[in-house]
Amino acid sequence: MGHIIKYRMIQTTRKTSLMFWAFAFPIILGTFFYLSFGRGGMGEDMEAIPTAVVKEETSVYAEAFLEFLEQMDGTTIETVSMTDKEAKDALKDGQVTGIFYCRQEPGLMVAGSGINQSILKTLLDGYCRNAAMMQAAAEEHPERMAQAMEAMEQWQELTEETSIKGKTMDSNISYFFALIAYACLSGAFLGVQASFDGQANLSALGIRRSITPTHKFQLILTDFLVLFFIHFCNVGILTIYIRYVLGIRLGSDVPSIVLVELLGSMIGISLGMMLGCVSRLSVNAKMGLCVLFTLFPGFLAGLMFGQMKDIIEHHCPIINRLNPASVLSDAFYCIGVYDDSERLLRNLVLLGVMSAALVTVAYLAVRRERYDSV
Amino acid sequence: MIQIQNLVKRYGSLLALDHLNLSIQEGEIFGLLGPNGSGKTTAINCLLALLKYDKGSVTIMGKPMKPDSYEIKREIGVVMQEVAVFDQMTVRENIDYFCGLYIREKSRRKKLVEEAIEFVGLEDYTKTRPGKLSGGLQRRLNIACGIVHRPKLIILDEPTVAVDPQSRNRILEGIQELNRQGSTIIYTSHYMEEVEQICSRIAIIDHGRVLASGTKEELKNMIKTGETITIEAVALEPEYLADIRGLSHVFDVSYKDQVLVIRCSKAKHNLVSVLNYLREKDIAFGKVFSELPTLNDVFLEITGKALRD
């Protein structure tokens, strides 16, 4: 297998035109984005989010949440105490972004979706998670209360530094997240090209490779591994370019960024291989499908219109769960904006499952394949 | 070694293979001769389990040939009509890559690659990429990639199309050498001279059917023509042509552009009797050729058209 990998690597990397466009196109696009938006807003601090606070009861739980909100006041959020009716009117008028309800089970009401709403939700989720942890510690391990308190303080610091002062919350950043997601998906072009070399009805090389005793699965897996590695390097270089040449902060959690790009590269290649293997279409038709299946998900994820993903999330969220570009973009948000490890993990698992499914479909499509004509 | 029985393949309404039957024995060079579009390549693709077919069966080495017959594929080498190599890799890299799809052991692979390079005479081009090679050298590389793993069965589908005479001779000699080394060869071509030169048994196919098969002698014995006499003669009158047609053993006479073609059945002294007649009538004539029947004559007599029509 090492032998096949070696030569597939040589052969692919020497395809200069293919490599140039796979590598250069996202970088060119990123540069255009940068030139269009300028540096304005890319690195600025975000203003505190106006939030209404409604105290619904006087229990110890409500007081604890209120205290938490007071601590965050002036940094992440700017709170105003209101009655329920006043708060709802303010939300309707757009004076506040959300309403926090102080009660035994704290609540949040928002009127739309976006970065600010997501931050409020992240704050609430984080608080609830830590409160539950504190409660469990108090009941089951009172001796570990001090440790739990320390962990909670650290989380609060992290929330402030990453979510608010991390300088990653400008709405234009969504274009760069979508761009990296698109770059990951554009690996489909490498995948679809490689699949031509394995199919007897598409190329003479396909005939030659189809009549060798090397198992089809091994050939597909080899192609996948080689292209995945090459594409991952391309995406990595794009990220370094965006971060260090264009100076756009994508988040400080480098291992998570690498992980998302690994899975992103994987899904791009596997999507291309699936498109290349599955249909009986001509080479040109398959390339056309490839364009469609990379640009359209990119569009839905906000590559051309930044609010698109939010609109879809509001009206048909399932599309965002199934669209690999949206899942990728969301994973980057989890790192750069939300600081939501649970949601990040969910996205990563989703990408891994999609990728495995696509490669399996590609293999099943060409396994024991006989063609109508070659 | 190979049995093809009642193979039927349709492309829509076009019948590409019409109950094709072939039996190929171990150790022979078997020629599939037919004009372009006669079904040679389709037959090969069905044989290799690349194409779906509507009816019939294919067995190789006693086992049915299927897309996942990896053990059988290990023993087969294929040289297709179109050059199938990676343009991005050098001659040596291409040969080594395709060898590696059959042979895992590195030291053995290295030896086989060297032998294949020497066999096709590409020693001076090992670091050259295919795009820089001439058409003939590309064909040689194509052959090297197909035979590098020393297969027991080698299928060559028109390997000499668009090849210069020097490379063609080298390729034909190479095929005979491979056969001497123990490989069974299937060779398809529409060049009858090549098939006649190297094949021990031949099947003539057209419209997806085997019209005749056997050794070249057996094929030539199947037809009426025993000798074809061609004479350059000026202004022959129709009565002379009628007289020549009446000579013994002559069964067909044609005269066009001052070239007289006389087909005779198998007999001694056909040429002498024709020349005697011309002298007797004081007919001036130039160049005279006498040819024994060719595979083209066989094809012509069976189908009513020349092989290259």
Note the quaternary state here. Answer: heterodimer
Query: Taking all residues together, what is the mean pLDDT of chain A?
Result: 81
> Could you tell me the strand content of chain B as a percent range?
25-35%
Going by CATH, what is the homologous superfamily of the largest domain in chain B?
A: P-loop containing nucleotide triphosphate hydrolases
- Quickly count the domains of chain A: 2
Number of strands of chain A: 4
Strands in their spatial order, largest beta sheet of chain A: 2-1-3-4
H-E order of chain A: HHEHEHEEHHHHHHHHHHHH
The total count of helices of chain A amounts to 16
Number of separate strands of chain B: 14
State the gist of this model.
The complex is a heterodimer of chains A (374) and B (309). By secondary structure, chain A is mainly α.
General description of the model:
The complex is a heterodimer of chains A (374) and B (309). Chain A is mostly helical. Chain A is built from 16 helices and four strands. A four-stranded mixed β-sheet of chain A has the order 2-1-3-4, with helices on both faces. In chain A, helix 3 (60-72) links the parallel strand 1 and strand 2 (77-81). In chain A, helix 8 (187-196) packs antiparallel against helix 12, helix 11 packs antiparallel against helix 12 (283-300) and helix 15 packs antiparallel against helix 16. Chain A has two domains: 2-41 and 170-366, no CATH class; 49-164, abc type-2 transporter like fold, CATH 3.40.1710. Chain B has 309 residues and is of the alpha/beta class. Chain B has two domains: 2-220, P-loop containing nucleotide triphosphate hydrolases (Rossmann fold, 3-Layer(aba) Sandwich), CATH 3.40.50.300; 224-292, Alpha-Beta Plaits (2-Layer Sandwich), CATH 3.30.70. Chain B has eleven helices and 14 strands. Chain B has helices at residues 40-47, 70-73, 91-100, 106-120, 135-147, 165-180, 192-198, 216-221, 238-245, 270-280, 295-303; strands at residues 2-11, 14-24, 29-33, 55-60, 63-64, 76-79, 153-157, 184-189, 201-206, 209-214, 225-233, 250-256, 259-265, 285-291. In chain B, the strands form three sheets. In chain B, strands 6-7-8-3-9-10 form a six-stranded mixed β-sheet, with helices on both faces. Chain B has a four-stranded antiparallel β-sheet with strand order 2-1-4-5, with helices on one face. In chain B, helix 4 packs antiparallel against helix 5 (135-147) and helix 5 (135-147) runs parallel beside helix 6 (165-180). The longest helix of chain B is centred in the middle third of the chain and has 16 residues, at 165-180. Chain B is elongated and about 75 Å long. The mean pLDDT of chain B is 90. Chain A binds chain B through residues 3-4, 7, 10-12, 14-15, 200, 203-205, 207-216, 367-374, and chain B through 11, 45, 48-52, 66-68, 70-71, 73-74, 76, 78, 80, 82-86, 88-89, 93, 96-98, 100-102, 104, 106, 109, 145-146.
